[in-house]
Design goal:
Blueprint: E1 7-15, H1 21-34, E2 40-46, E3 62-68, H2 71-79, H3 81-90, E4 94-103
Antiparallel strand pairs: 1-3, 1-4, 2-3
Helix pairs in contact: 1-3
Amino acid sequence: MAISKDFVHHVFFWLKNPDSKEDRDALVAGLQKLTKLDFLKEYHIGIPADTNRDVIDRSYSVSWLNVFENAEDEAKYQNHPMHLAFVKECSSLWSKVAVFDSVKA
């Protein structure tokens, strides 16, 4: 089934200490707090699947997929105090972040 909402925001995090279960758990706990935002329609917090093909990048530590009704709701998310607090509290855990935003084609 296709996602019925318009805006998808997918974030990939690379931990400074990729072998640290404690750091990964702390990042996941921080993301879990963000799931309470009422304008977040769907979400998925994940870790790399055990799949191995040439086209698969498993170098990241945690992924955070968000589905918003529209770009305006995603902009609200970016400036929301809970999101800003997450960045402040958890940014020391990661060495790299990559964001992929998309809208319906």
